[in-house]
């Protein structure tokens, strides 16, 4: 019953998400975004092709997200047409024998929600729960696993790993986007301004808890969890600050998520910690397009740490490699999964593995400059072409075992 899948998110593939906070900040001046999302992968129209690809790749699971800005374009106004759109995708999954893992919020939020202060607003948990209940009423019967918030703890990483002036640049970008729409308190859903991360994290935790309750009120037996950004933190010396860093990056999320049905783990690399700060990877290390070390054992290390910290089953909701060289990805997938297989054999309950991503898509601030996809997307014709790495994952999924 292992879930072999791949992941996407609405804003990154659908295109034309004009009512979202992301569309506003992509077009702001100044902006931290390299380029706007535009048509993305045109998946709002081409989603049947995406599902056909999932099936063609021999996968039984597809993780995608609902676009809150489409479903609730104005506060309290819900679009039945958009709910029907996502219902059609769920029905398409069912017709193809694909389990749907659905994320209710994948970074982007409605522009009106950002205009109220986004996740800094004390009403944000209740507003999010209202949306989740409406969406669940329409869609829950077709969902296999529900993820409330994508990488809910990411602000803790951004807060500490971006350049010192990033918070002020984010503030200027938000202010510019807000002015364009006459919104004085515009706060985007992804990036925390200076001094705002703690407040955002507090409200995100309340929002997750309220969302679980809202979704469960509609379908009590639907498995619900949150996805977390989990780096494999490793100690580089005896008196390492690694454990302190883990507390800073994960905060109270492990405690909160311990009450859930599963935890979504999203891992891309490791960080090495010395006595006071990060230390460089070993000599000869390879790096991905993000400048992070390519380190295949990091997935297993992250999964093991999360399970030991929570005791909750793990669903790997994202894992991948940003690279323009698909041979690196084709090696990275089995090299990573062989370590994951060992952790499973040691007794860690892993429900499934969703690779990021199905498509080369819009990668937020980096635009289209980074490639995570199992499939290439022609930016002019939107034709999807599976890469050799897709066949590697397909062969592993069909055998349900990794052997090197």
What is the CA-CA span between the terminal residues? 23 Å
Query: What is the SS-derived class?
Result: alpha/beta
What coarse outline follows from CA principal-axis ratios? globular
Strand order of the largest sheet: 1-2-3-4-5-7-10-11
Taking the sheet with the most strands, its summary is: 8 strands, parallel, barrel
Average pLDDT over all residues: 97
- As a percent range, the share of strand residues is 15-25%
Give a short summary of the structure.
This protein has 404 residues and is an alpha/beta fold. It has helices at 10-13, 21-26, 43-56, 68-71, 80-95, 111-115, 124-139, 154-161, 166-181, 197-218, 242-250, 253-257, 298-310, 326-345, 388-399, and strands spanning 3-7, 61-65, 99-105, 145-149, 224-229, 232-235, 262-267, 270-273, 278-279, 314-319, 350-356, 375-377, 384-386. The protein has an eight-stranded parallel beta barrel. Strands 6-8-9 form a three-stranded mixed β-sheet. Strands 12-13 form a two-stranded antiparallel sheet.
Textual characterization of the structure:
This protein is an alpha/beta fold and 404 residues long. Helices cover 42% and strands 16% of the residues. It contains 15 helices and 13 strands. The protein has helices at 10-13, 21-26, 43-56, 68-71, 80-95, 111-115, 124-139, 154-161, 166-181, 197-218, 242-250, 253-257, 298-310, 326-345, 388-399, and strands spanning 3-7, 61-65, 99-105, 145-149, 224-229, 232-235, 262-267, 270-273, 278-279, 314-319, 350-356, 375-377, 384-386. The strands form three sheets. It has an eight-stranded parallel beta barrel with strand order 1-2-3-4-5-7-10-11. It has a three-stranded mixed beta sheet with strand order 6-8-9. A two-stranded antiparallel ribbon has the order 12-13. A hairpin with a 4-residue loop joins β8 and β9 (278-279). α7 runs parallel beside α10, α13 runs parallel beside α14 (326-345) and α14 (326-345) packs parallel to α15 (388-399). The radius of gyration is 20 Å and the shape is globular. The two termini are 23 Å apart. The mean pLDDT is 97.
